[in-house]
Each structure stands twice: as C-alpha cells, then as structure tokens.
DUF4282 domain-containing protein
Amino acid sequence: MAPARKSKARGSGALFWDLLTFDRLVTGPVIHLIYWAGLGVVALFAFSVVGAAVGLALKERGVASLLLAFPVLIAGLLVAAGMVLLWRAFCEFYVAVFRISEDLRALRQANDADHAVATSVRGPGA
C-alpha cells in the first residue's frame, strides 16, 4: 500500500520543498545513475581485457602466443562478468535499504493516523 502524498496538492514548489526538508529521498534515483556509471566502468575493463588478449596474440606470431592469449581473454571476461554481478548486488542492497526506510515511514504515518482516529473517537480524556 503506497502512502498518500500531501505534497502533490501544494503546487509546483512541492518537489523543491520535499527535497529541502528530506520528505523525499533522492538516493534511489542517484543509485540508479551510479549503477549505470559502474556498468560503464566494467565495460571499459572488459574492452581492455579483449584488447590485451588481442595484443598478446599479435605480439609474437605463433601458436604459443595464441595459447596464452585465449586463457587471458576467457579469465578476463569471467572477471568482468563477476564484477557485473557484484556491482548489481551492491546497488540492489542500497536500493533495498532505502525502500525499507520508505516502507517504515509509511507504516509510521499510518500508525499515527490510526492513533489520531482512535483518540478522536474516544475523546481526549478517555
């Protein structure tokens, strides 16, 4: 159940006000940008591994350089694939932590609303 947001009714400055007062967290979208930037770095690493393997194969003519370049290529691409998985897990961890924070905030607001309704029904002195 998504919490009802009061800020949509306040107008165009509501987003700016939510950001200033920490009513809205910007960490989720920022983590997505960091995720894509990290994937770009891993892609650069993978391209450099391919270039190193090709350079190693072309350095000397013969079967020995090809036999050395092939394991370098395979190992480098496996390391790049592992880096992609680790980076994804790292970013998902932070997204999960911030979603838990948002869910706890929604539960707290719902609890406060239920408490206010119960207090108004019973009366302040009851």
